[in-house]
Design brief:
136 residues, alpha+beta, TATA-Binding Protein, seven-stranded antiparallel beta sheet, 24% helix, 27% strand
Length: 136
């Protein structure tokens, strides 16, 4: 995992508006409960490298569009999933199937080392997010 410096850290806004602004960039709500969660964007084809934007609810619940949320410090992380049966039946190559199958597996490494290229890609995406969220 690599923490990323960002102007969105500490920024507050309305969850529904934030979710709508970032949906076009591929961000989806992940690993959430009513008072916190993450907006994740997959950075690779296999669903193993993610830019993650932590959210903490200040008022309301995260499943409500009008919830007031605050961003934590963004980070990029890599999960390495177990290999095995899926490899010889074609799941590993599918952009749709692999993340669906992988979500039910326990990662072999939840915080695998990151190549600099993934950090740079995450930072580039994060700069676009910062520009989109300037008006909050």
């Amino acid at each position: 995992m690599q923490m990323l410096h960002s102007t969105i850290t500490g920024k507050e806004g309305v969850f529904g508006q934030i979710r709508e602004l970032l949906a076009d960039d591929g961000f989806t709500l992940a690993n959430w409960d009513y008072d916190r969660g993450f907006l994740d964007r997959k950075l690779d084809d296999k669903g193993m490298v993610f830019l993650r934007l932590p959210l903490e609810v200040r008022h309301g619940h995260l499943d409500e569009a009008d919830a007031q949320v605050q961003f934590g410090t963004p980070f990029v992380l890599k999960h390495v999933y177990q290999s095995g049966v899926e490899e010889h039946i074609g799941y590993e190559g599918s952009n749709v199937i692999a993340p669906l199958v992988n979500q039910f597996q326990e990662p072999v490494e939840k915080d695998a080392p990151l190549d600099d290229g993934w950090v740079e890609k995450a930072e580039a995406v994060l700069r676009r997010v910062e520009r989109k969220l300037e008006t909050l």
